[in-house]
Every structure is written in structure tokens, then in C-alpha cells.
Amino acid sequence: MIKQDQLLWIDGREVAALDGGTLEVENPATTQIAFVVARGRGPDIDAAVDAARRAHDHGPWPRMHPRERGRILRTAAEILRSRKESIGEVETACVGRPLREMVQQVGRAPDWLDFFASVAETQEDLVVPASGELMNYVRRVPLGVVGAITPWNHPLLITMKKVAPALAAGNTMVVKPSEVAPVAPLELARALVEAGIPDGVINVVPGFGTDAGKALTEHDRIDRIDLTGGTETGRQVAAAAGRNLIPVQAELGGKAPVLIFDDVPIDIAVAGATFASFVASGQSCIAGTRLLVHERSIDAFVEKLVERTQLIRVGDPMQPEAQMGPVVSQRQLDRILGLVESARAEGARVLCGGERLAGHPFERGYFIAPTVITDVHQDMRIMREEVFGPVVSVQPFADEDEAVALANDADFGLGAAVWTKDLTRAHVVAHRIRSGTVWINDHHRIDPASPWGGFKDSGIGSENGVEAFNDYTAAQSVLVNLSRTPFDWFGSSEELRYS
Ligand code: TXE
Questions:
Q1: Cα dihedral 87/89/93/95 (nearest 10)
Q2: Could you tell me the maximum CA-CA distance found in the chain, to the nearest angstrom?
Q3: If pLDDT is split at 50, 70 and 90, which confidence band does 286 have?
Q4: Residue 417: alpha-carbon gap to chain centroid
Q5: N or C: which end of the chain has fewer CB within 10 A?
Q6: Exactly one of 89, 91, 101, 162 is catalytic; which is it?
Q7: 161 part of the active site
């Protein structure tokens, strides 16, 4: 049973905020308070950075053999797996996503610890062909203290995508999870501490972006900052990183196109589209929000899509039959419905949904009926801005070139999907789309081995995979003089000087 009152994790123990402050986490399905969590501010971030700094500069973690680090990370993975039901309930209580999906996602997240433990254990350093009588070997050393700022939409998984590679590479960390859903990241810290991670290696300080987030981002004693969040937050975090001359990795907003060619049977296309669009009430940076459908099949597609969308069972996310829960907050609800209203005002047609659900069991909670919009054009706000809700638009295209042009006509470039039976077209179109990930006849799939990052305004750098692990290290070049001839640069003998 996970406690309803949660503290900060700093230097290997649970502590209250220095000023005793707390924040309340609301259950979006009931609008009741699910958790009261210690609220960190600048001084708590300072304490966490101090602990992480000490653990990095003087502690055993960065110097530990990678297999020893790997053993601790794998133990934490097993602890988390054994708690997937209870942590899944925490996630549902904080974000409202159906329990059956959250338990599955929480059960998957520990794979990141196993994967990056393996990467660290099998990493080989390089010897490079420097000229002269030199041996030049290159060590990969941890960067130091990594700050991570994480969002509410997949609280444990997104935190894990940063924590697993950073720790495996020997860094220490301060994580500032979202004020909306900080509990599962705190449970991640607990599992790592129980697994035997040294004090100060992992510190988790919930708090608001404007104070704790800003304090971490602008801290002059961190060595890298990672963010998953909105694009505006990304600009602020990247600017602060620039001032401190530290690397930044940012995964930001998206507006994923889903290109559906007319060789795909309508039922399969509609099942793929609803999966792309409505999982997690569309609150995912890679949610398929722009359905681009060949003009020959669009009428049949839209008819079936609306029918299917209206059958999605929205309900109490704790109940196993619920397929969709609420959106996360009043703020998000207002924003989503505001964007739907703007689409109506600009001439779009809302074929289903587009409103808050009323009546039993929706008396409380931020439930929105899944929404399908047509008659859109590229200039509408609904087509340009990230909605982050259960809202999808449908647009026709006449041929491959038009489909690609529409897909690429966005400020974002995180995820995209292509649906076709034509093998060549699938690959060619995927290569023409400016986005970090493209699924063919699928959506949403993610793997610790699979690079994950955004082009354009969707971010900087990439998560997952061996390259992401390397980005948590710096190359240290060690050059060894193998010459037996003595030299004296400032000596009188030409021979000795330039040998
Ligand atoms: O995100 P924020 P919000 C998008 C999505 C959503 C919008 C707003 O479109 O509707 O962003 O969501 C911390 N310095 N995404 O308001 O504010 C904040 O405390 C340092 C896409 O929830 O960006 C939280 O921990 N930190 C996205 C984290 O940033 C700051 C996921 C994200 O919150 C800060 C979430 C600051 N100045 C939202 N301001 C995705 N890519 O999946 C905020 N934070």
C-alpha cells in the first residue's frame, strides 16, 4: 500500500520540504485529493544538487564497475515489477488513465533499467589511430550531475527514460517530476534506494515548474538538463542550459500525422487510427492527431471512424471495462474544449464529441467525449497547436506528394505513421516525413533500444538506444607518449626539440 502522504527523496532518505510546504495531487476522475506531497522549492533543489554533487565527486557510483551498477539497476527493476499493480493504481489516481493500461505501462518501464544495465556492462572504450608515437585511448566518463524535469502524462515511464541511461552511465541525478503526478517517480527513487544505490545518486524533488523546475534548470552546479514538457517550457530550459553551457535534451510537443492510403481495409485503418488518436485520452506527445486519408476512401473511413469512436467506453479508469478516462485537469479540459471551439468558429465540423461528458458517472471529473473533426484547413489553430486531448481531425489527400506535404506542414516533428500494404511506398513515404519516429502500419510502439527524439520544435537530442547512453557520457582522450627518444621543446638541439 503506497502512502497518501509523500516526502521528497534527498541523499538516500525521505525528507519534508525545508519550509514544510506541501502540494495536493488531484484525482482527475473524481476531483478529490489523492495524495499530499512535500513541495520542494529552490532550497530543496540546492540540497538535492549538493547531495548529487557529493555522490558524484566523492561517492562510489561513478567509479563502480559497470557490472556492479548493473546489478543494482536490475534489482530495482525487479522491485518495481513486483509493485506494478500498486504503482499502476498510483498512476491512474494521478492522471486518470485506465488502470489496465497503467499497470501494463508500469510493468514495462523496468525494461529500461535492464536494457541500460546491459549497455553499460558491454560498453567498450576505443583506441583511436592518432599519428605519431602515441597511443590514444578514449574513455567514456559520466557527465556528473544530471537534472531531469518530467511531465504528468506518462509519469513513471518518461522519468525512467531519463533515469535508466543516466544512472547506468555513472551519473548522479536530481529529478523534478510534474507537480500534477509526482508519486510514481518518488516510488522509482524508493526502489533504487532499496536496491542498494548509494546515497545521493538519485534525488527526487516534486514541486512546481516556476520555482523548483526553474531552480534546477538554472542551477550552476549541474552538468546536463533533460526535459519532457511543452515547447514553451523547452525554450526556457534550453535558454538556461545555454547560459550555463551545459548540454540539454528536450522532448517537447507533437502533432503526429497518420497517413492512410486506400489499399488499407477500412476496419484496419479505423482500428489503427483510434489506437493512434485516443490512447491515454490523446495526452501523448506522439498521439496521432492529424488523420490524412486518401480521397477515394475518406467517406467510408469517416463514417466508420465516427461509429467506432462513439463506442469507446469512457468511464471510471479504476474499472477494468473503462477504455478511456478523463483528461488530467481542469486546465487541460479548458484548453482542449477551447481549441475545439476555435475549430468550430473557423468553419470545421465536429462530427462527434467536442464536449464535456455529463450525467452518471461523470458528475465529477474531467471527462471529454472522444472527438472527430472534419472540414479543416492548415491555417486553423486546431491544425497548428498541440491539443493534448481526445481530439482528432481528418483531411483528404489526392496523392502521395500531397500526403507528404500535409504531413510535413507542421512546426512539430516527433511521431508519424504510414498505413499501406505497398511495401515500397511505406518506406519511401516514411523517409520523406520529417519526424523522429515513423511507424508503418502501427503507432505508439516504444522500446528502450529504439531512438526517440523530435525534429523541428519537437525537441533536441534523442532518448533511448546506445546513442542516448553515450550522450550521458563525455569522451576523455588519454594520449600516451610511446617514444623512447627524449625531447626538449625549448632546448638548443633541433633534434631533441622536434623529435
Ligand atoms: O507542461 P509543462 P504542462 C505539452 C502539452 C500540454 C502542454 C502544457 O501540449 O498541453 O505542454 O502542459 C516543468 N522551468 N506537453 O503545463 O508546463 C513542469 O513543472 C523548468 C507535452 O503540464 O511544460 C513539469 O515538471 N521547469 C509533453 C514539466 O516542466 C518547468 C508532456 C512539464 O510541464 C518550467 C507535457 C520552467 N519554466 C506537456 N515550466 C510531452 N512532450 O509529452 C514548467 N516546468
A1: 70
A2: 95
A3: very high
A4: 18
A5: N
A6: 162
A7: no
Separation of first and last alpha carbons in the chain: 71
Provide the residue type at 476 as one letter. Answer: Q
Active site (annotated) includes residue 352: no
395-436 confidence digits (pLDDT tens): 999 999 999 999 999 999 999 999 999 999 999 999 999 999
Q: Find where cell 471512424 sits.
A: 305
Nearest to 392 by CA among 304, 276, 299, 269: 276
Phi, psi dihedrals of residue 344, rounded to the nearest 5°: -60, -45
Q: Strand order in 415-419's β-sheet?
A: 349-352, 371-374, 391-397, 288-294, 256-260, 415-419, 437-440
Cell numbers linked to 312: 469507446
Write out the H or E segment, with its range, that includes residue 331: helix 330-345
Catalytic residue among 161, 176, 285, 456: 285
pTM for the model: 0.97
Question: What is the rounded CA–CA span in Å between residue 339 and residue 386?
Answer: 9
Ligand 1 centroid distance, CA of 386 (Å):
12
Q: Is the CB of 153 under 6 A from ligand 1?
A: yes
pLDDT tens for 59-80 read: 999 999 999 999 999 999 999 9
Ligand 1 pocket test, candidate residues 217, 233, 382, most atoms within 8 A of CB = 233
Which residue is listed with cell 499502476?
A: 88
- pLDDT of residue 47 exceeding 60: yes
pLDDT score of 487? 86
Nearest-CA neighbor of 21 among 187, 207, 190? 207
Place of cell 550522450: 471
| CA atoms within a 13 Å half-sphere pointing along the CA-CB vector of 124 | 3
What DSSP line would sit under 257-284, residue for residue?
EEEE-TTS-HHHHHHHHHHHHHGGGG-S
* Contact status, residue 65 vs residue 123, Cβ threshold 8 Å: no
Residue 416's contacts (CB-CB under 8 Å, 6 or more residues apart) are 256, 257, 258, 259, 407, 430, 433, 435, 437, 438, 439
Contact of 167 with 69, CB cutoff 8 Å: yes
Helices (H), 169-228: 183-194, 214-217
**In a 3-state reduction of DSSP, which class is residue 187?**
helix
Dihedral-angle region of residue 196 (phi above 0 means left; psi in -120 to 50 means alpha; beta otherwise): left
